[in-house]
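Please decode residue identities from the backbone states below.
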């Protein structure tokens, strides 16, 4: 029997699960408001706070750390790599601490998993981190060679959900042409062409639609002017793009459910902003459909916001002319992390070795 702890830190939540022999023993999601996270200057500063959440959940459910066989965390911003299950090693920890590709809550997945694994002499893994890179050459062009587009997205959930939908379509994933949209704290719109994500917006850093806590793409000229206006520090501008952008900037919350409650209570501003976010998501889907020359098997909406009927309806109305829209609310990340680690523990697959910068 393999008992595995799964740790999934997201920008608006920490998700924890424990599995044993395919049985889900515990699953818990803790949501974090912008106020709760405001006191932490960097993501790494949230380490103790998020680790304590994990340990508290284990304690509440009377699961002894010593009984675990492995720990698997959501993979963060390491150097770009191919998909798969990687053993957390010293190089990975160094790169995450040095924030070589930037900051995101997912960076804490490997750090916490490694600390807990080391405390009991058991291995720690990550699976399909947010930097999985399968972009085709055209997708890397931005418009200036010093600023190539890069692949940062919800790789783990996009891949897991795409495989599930491919099954529903009775087609191997490697033969499908899908557009998968993860609607989380960040929003990614990925083109899955024959099993590879050949184009996707950088969900973290000022690209694509705005999201609950991110600005998405901004008018560059105006942004440059703002950067040099003396009005804001570099750190403040970065926060406008990630953390305090999108819904947070317009209506002060990163919470889709709270937004819906406000809309139901007659808040017209919240309604307009929420609908504008759906409009931008639809526009990005339209753009991504051109990558597949319009030959799209299905458009898939997933992530937390896909639970919301009105939001899904607004997007669907604008994009259903392209392909059938399938809704897979929430995420398959916890099971995908568990299964990735289990494949290694059972000897079905070998853990990949993270090398750092190639
Ligand atoms: N039932 C729901 N209705 C509307 N929005 C929801 C619902 N559940 C989650 N959300 C929203 O989805 C977003 C988070 O999605 P999730 O995929 O869990 O993201 P993350 O991993 O970024 O924390 C938040 O804005 C959250 O409030
Ligand atoms: C870093 C890309 C993935 C992402 O945006 O995740 P969250 O929605 O959990 O912030």
């Amino acid at each position: 029997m393999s008992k595995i702890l799964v740790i999934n830190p997201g920008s608006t939540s920490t998700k924890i699960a424990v599995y044993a022999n395919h049985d889900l023993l515990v699953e818990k999601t803790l949501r974090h408001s912008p106020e709760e996270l405001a006191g932490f200057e960097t993501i790494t500063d949230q380490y103790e706070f998020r680790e304590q959440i994990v340990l508290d959940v284990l304690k509440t459910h009377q699961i002894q750390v010593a009984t675990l066989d492995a720990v698997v965390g959501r993979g963060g911003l390491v150097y770009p790599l191919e998909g798969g299950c990687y053993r957390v090693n010293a190089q990975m920890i160094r790169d995450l601490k040095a924030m070589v590709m930037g900051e995101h809550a997912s960076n804490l997945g490997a750090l916490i998993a490694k600390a807990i694994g080391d405390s009991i002499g058991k291995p720690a893994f990550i699976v399909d981190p947010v930097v999985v890179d399968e972009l085709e050459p055209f997708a890397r062009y931005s418009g200036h060679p010093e600023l190539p587009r890069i692949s940062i997205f919800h790789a783990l959930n996009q891949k897991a959900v795409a495989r599930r939908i491919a099954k529903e379509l009775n087609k191997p994933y490697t033969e499908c042409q899908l557009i998968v949209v993860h609607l989380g704290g960040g929003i990614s719109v990925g083109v899955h062409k024959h099993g590879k994500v050949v184009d996707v917006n950088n969900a973290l850093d000022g690209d694509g639609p705005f999201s609950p806590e991110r600005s998405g793409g901004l008018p560059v000229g105006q942004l440059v002017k703002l950067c040099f206006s003396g009005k804001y520090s570099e750190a403040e501008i970065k926060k406008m793009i990630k953390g305090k952008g999108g819904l947070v900037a317009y209506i002060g919350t990163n919470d889709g459910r709270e937004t819906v409650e406000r809309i139901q209570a007659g808040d017209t501003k919240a309604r307009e902003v929420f609908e504008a976010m759906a409009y931008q998501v639809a526009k990005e889907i339209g753009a991504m459909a051109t990558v597949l020359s319009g030959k799209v098997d299905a458009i898939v909406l997933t992530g937390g916001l896909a639970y919301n009927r009105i939001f899904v309806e607004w997007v669907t109305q604008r994009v259903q002319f392209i392909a059938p829209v399938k809704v897979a609310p929430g995420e398959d990340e916890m099971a995908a992390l568990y299964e990735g680690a289990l494949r290694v523990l059972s000897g079905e697959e070998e853990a990949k070795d993270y090398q750092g910068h190639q």
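Observation: Residues 155-329 form a domain with the Nucleotidyltransferase; domain 5 fold (CATH 3.30.420.40).
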